[in-house]
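Fold these two proteins, one after the other.
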Amino acid sequence: MYNKGLFNDWVPKPVQLLMIVLLVIVVLPLGGVYTGNISFMVGGTGELSEYFMFASYATTIGMGACMPIVLRMKMRFKVRNKMVLLLVLLGLLNCVNATTFSPVVIIGVSLVMGFLKMMVAIELFLPLMMMIGDRGVFYGVFYTAVLTLTQISSYYAVKVSIVYNWQQFFIVIAILCLVMALLCWVLMHNKYFSLKVPLYHIDWMSIILFMSTFMFSAYVLSFGKQQDWLNSTKIINSSIAAFVSFAVLIVRQFTLKRPYLSLSVFTRSNVLNGLFMLFWLGMFLGTTSIQNIFAVGVLGYDQLTNAKLSLLMIPGLGAAGMTAIFWFKRQKPLKMFIFSGFSAMIGYALIMYFSMVLEFNYEYWYLPMFLKGYGMGALFISVWFYTLDKLELNDMLAAIGLVLVWRTFLVVGIFSALMSWFQYQFQIVSLGDLAVYMDGMTISPQNVMSNMKTIQLNAILAANKKIFGYIILVGFGVLLYVLTHHFGAKRFEYLRFIRVLNGKSIIAKRRIREREIVEEIKDAAGSAM
């Protein structure tokens, strides 16, 4: 009646593994929009780019909303029925994105797509984790594959959009989803994973509050610059709505018999420190917006050349994955692995700081992008492992939704918005500084317009350089924190050593006293004799 696997017994093991790999390749990079595709969608629909950044955030929010209930959904339905239905729905949603020109529809589709995608992904996580065994090694393999597939899919989204149009890539993904649905119908068994559980225990109101909290937050982070932040009533109202939704969500968890979120895990040291490190990881990931300004706005790269820069991170991601496998197999402490990840990110920022020049060649990208890839892979693996370490399965699934949204959307969105704002402010300051040298003695009025582009580019370079400088300073502070943090090891070992010595001295004194008593007893016995 029950079968914890995915496939029928007659399917050979190599075919089962191949099917899992194909599902991973098709499902995990799925999204409502693709980063490299946004500029083409803006040109094709005539809408603001902020709408499509909002849609990108919505996919992550949908994934986070699904995580607390994903195990219950897995046990409620038969494997084949669920997988086929979900893949068909994902294919249809991709078709909707390919045929609509409304950004609001794309945002809604992206939210639903993230929710459904996580139900499929959990079916792939468990067999892979059982095959690999060690959780740390699994993270090393899994995150390397996910991050690599994400970079490759973004590149091909751009390439297909250039050769055909941006809708065609969604059509290709829809066809792949429907083909995988057909293969799942043929190869998968039609049994339950384990004991069938009801769905009425799920608190759907909490899911709605979770989504509304972060969707309002995504609107603020996406449209903040365009709406001029607190000078816009829409931004203020969305911020208030996000805060109220989150407050109601938290209060509601204390009234439920089966809470949607596990808030108790956020009192644990490793979870809090993990969230702190993920916050600063978001700072380094937020530099992508500054990198794009430099590559496209200053160096004049086209979209395909800019997308190739993401492919340069793949060797670094592979190196991080191999290092993680070695690290966890040897059961080494996490501190230096995390330290190496942040060090690589600082190395990337340092190189970019000194590379803000107009004469930057394409070959100069190899080292910084390798370091960025290694740092991203190492920190995704190690910090995620540390954050969720020693949590019970139910608590982990109930908390992982918030942690996922925090890592992938919230902190990255916050730092991207901050860097975009600071870049604009620093650019104005840089233009003011350059204006000091722009007078009739150095630049004649006739030459001002011909030199205006160079002046603007130098202002952008100065602003970018200043941002990377501040990031480097903060990064060294993060390195100091990593070096001084215990990462679960016993702190103040010298006190423990002193206690041992004290214990030994007490035991020694006790034994000496016992010998004295024995000798006294012997002496007393001798006298009696």
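Now the second one:
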Amino acid sequence: MNKFRILFLAAISSISLSAQKKENKANVFELQNPDYKISPQTGMTKQHWKDAALYLLEGAFSYIHKLDDPMQFPKQEGKSYPSNPNQVPTEKLEGLCRTLFIASPLLKENPDLVINNIKVADYYRYQIAKLADPQSPTYIEPRAKNAGPNQKLVEFGALSLSLLTNADVLWKPLPQNQKDDLAKIMISYGDGPTVDSNWKFFNIFVLSFFKEQGYTVNEKLLVEYLEKSLKHYRGNGWYNDSPAFDYYSMWAFQMYGNIWSEFFGKKYYPEIAAKFMSNFSDLKNNYPYLFSKDGEMIMWGRSISYRIGAVVPFPLMGFQNDPDINYGWMRRIASGVIKQFLTHPDFMKDNVPTLGFYGEFEPAVQNYSCRGSVYWMGKIFMGLLVPDNNPFWISKENNGDWDTIFKKDEVYNKYQGDSQILITDYPNIGASEVRAWCHEKVKDDWQKFRSTENYNRLSYNSAFPWQADGQNGEVAMNYVIKNKNEQWEAFRLFTFKKFENGIYYRNVVLETDENIKFDLADIPLANGILRIDKNNSDKVVSMRLGHYALPKLDKEIVTTKKNIAGHEVTIIDNGKYQVAMIRLLGWDKTEVVKAKGLHPQSNESSVINVLSDTKSNKTKIYATLMLWKKSGENWNKSELLPVKIVDQTNDVVTIQFNNGKSKAVSFLIKKLD
């Protein structure tokens, strides 16, 4: 009986999984009539961008059957809100204002758009007006006199951005009394306190839109927030988001500055607009290198559920009409990222994008997000405001430097200066990689994301999305240390020192024990990374270091072990990529660690870890090769052992490459400072 029951349940489970896969496949965005003449890499034209926007909007409107229905979607289990009824009005506000990013550019071209038998423009005008109706369940009260900034300011800033760029459809048809009521409420938030981050732009857009419409606004505060926003700039296209650098600190600041300048600033504050546009111009020489050859983005930083929003600066380059911009490459990257997610079978659930990276992934979710938050990604469709005949749309797609400059068996680093970011490109697998800021204590991280895997990995790679840490010491692309409480604790308090001679230097201290501290040196190679790290701790340390993890895909992950010149080589292969780890100095042993529920691409994954239990409190050098190739490619001995240690002291390690060149990794204090 039990055997029959088990077989029955297994069959039901199999049918359920099969049905889910079919549902997911049916839910995937499909390119209709791709144009491989103008877009040989992706097949996508401006029309396909409109199709993608419509695909997302149709999913949202599957919940709208009459004008009174709010943009409210099924909650995803986990830390996302709402967690109490008081948060529901803000949840509905997010759904409304964020889906409007997708709808507004479509309505600008087609004001009569109908979805699910609903006139889309009528719906948004009706719902916007209801925000100022005290009798409406979606009513938003004016900001209290002494109230601080909150999520309502964010959403009103978002709404103002759409209104500023499409007032003819969304604003002008409203009766004057509704306009006045909305102005009173929205200005109460815009003319108020903000957060010292990209949030200042939410105030800026509210005040700018209503000034454009003839309302009296606090122009002194508007200029103050504009000037303070400019002070976040750190060069090479990067703004600092107090304190973080991530995708969002690039694309949000740059998009806001560009849209504000184009639709308002050039008319009213031309000198400030010129500064924003000068900063925007800097990104063309840096930001494209953060994406893979195939136009894929790295899983890195907070709010990764916004996904395709990260590429909005590329179409907005069209407003510059700059002959120095390779527009075909910019569109190739942007279209590639759109396809990266919209064509993935796990991207949509219940007709709505999941909170996660590809599918649902709780470790990457922030507690300020609700299900409708994902439509922040709709900002990519602000690119549709760029005219049809613009070079961004009509230039032939190409792979840019990946085809014209990058060479096989080489590695390319682009150090970003004051932001201390390092972008690395690997032509052999077409992957991009980034190293950036992380220095946040768990005890100070009240929102619980800047101290996590979103930021605390040693590096982030487009080919290998980050894996979350496990309770048993499972770790990918970071160290974990056995702390005083006998728990595995990841490094997160990194301090950048310098980038010199192709070596990226950092120091790190364990949060719960300042006497556990390391000097770190990353050396990107053609097929991976060489790590030379110095343990400066004054006590015995039990530690693990992880490579990038591989998800289980269509077949089992295969482990292979070899011995090259006395060094043990451990390789794992998932059918798409293979990664290898080689201990050169210091480490005791190597393990392949299997995990469940920690990887964003699969429930099952594997990662190679090296382990050490130091025998004394003396400083010690650890050297590790962390390599990769595409699956099916053979390794030769020189690829598995591309370097050798030729000299070592406590402070300087000299390495020699197979081509005869050498580098000295120096941890001398006088050189680091």
